[in-house]
TrEMBL record:
It comes from the Eukaryota. Residues 127-136 have a biased composition (Polar residues). This is Transcription regulator Rua1 C-terminal domain-containing protein. Residues 1-21, 121-154 are annotated as: Disordered. InterPro entries: Rua1_C. It comes from Hortaea werneckii EXF-2000. PANTHER family: MEIOTIC EXPRESSION UP-REGULATED PROTEIN 26. Residues 22-120 form the Transcription regulator Rua1 C-terminal domain.
C-alpha cells in the first residue's frame, strides 16, 4: 500500500489524512478529499480515488481487494483447482466448503470476493464490534397474516 500523499491540486484545501480505526485496519482510506457529496477516498493499493457517497470506495475495496468494511481481508480459498480444463480457476471456500469459480484475467478474484462477502459474514462468530449483530436486519420481520374470511354474524 502506498504511503505517499496523492497529488490533487484542485482538492488541496479539502484533502486531509484520516487515521485508521485500529492498528490492523486495511479498509479505511488514508486520504479523503472533497466535501459532502463530492467526498472521495484514496485507494493506496491502486493509487486511485473512489467516491464515498455512492459506495464506489466500498465496492472497490470489497470486490477488487477482498477487504471488508470491518477492516479485515476475506479468507483466501483453502485450495485451488483448474475449472473444466480451461484457464479458469475454482477456489475451495473455507466458510461453506464449496468450490467457487474465481475466474481469470484482471478481475479474476471478483467472483470469489462477492461470494466471500455473503458467505464469510454468515459464518463469522461476531461482528467487528463484537456484539454479533452485524449481519442481522434491523427491520422487523413481516408477520405471516392469514386472509380475513368474513363471518356471518347475526
Amino acid at each position: 500500500m502506498s504511503n505517499v500523499a496523492p497529488n490533487s491540486p484542485e482538492y488541496d484545501s479539502t484533502l486531509h489524512e484520516q487515521a485508521p480505526r485500529s492498528p490492523n485496519d486495511l479498509y479505511t482510506a488514508q486520504w479523503v478529499r472533497g466535501e459532502r457529496t463530492t467526498r472521495a477516498g484514496w485507494c493506496g493499493y491502486c493509487c486511485t480515488w473512489y467516491r464515498l457517497k455512492d459506495s464506489a470506495y466500498w465496492y472497490h475495496m470489497n470486490y477488487t481487494h477482498g477487504i471488508s468494511s470491518s477492516g479485515t481481508q476475506y479468507q483466501a480459498p483453502i485450495s485451488l483447482r483448474q475449472f473444466r480444463s480451461s484457464s479458469e480457476l475454482e477456489g475451495l471456500c473455507p466458510g461453506c466448503n464449496q468450490w467457487i469459480l474465481i475466474g481469470r484475467g484482471v478481475r479474476c478474484r471478483t467472483g470469489y470476493y462477492r461470494h466471500a462477502y455473503k458467505c464469510h459474514g454468515k459464518h463469522s462468530k461476531s461482528s467487528s464490534e463484537g456484539n454479533g449483530t452485524r449481519f442481522k436486519s434491523g427491520s422487523p420481520k413481516k408477520a405471516n397474516a392469514k386472509p380475513l374470511i368474513p363471518r356471518n354474524v347475526l
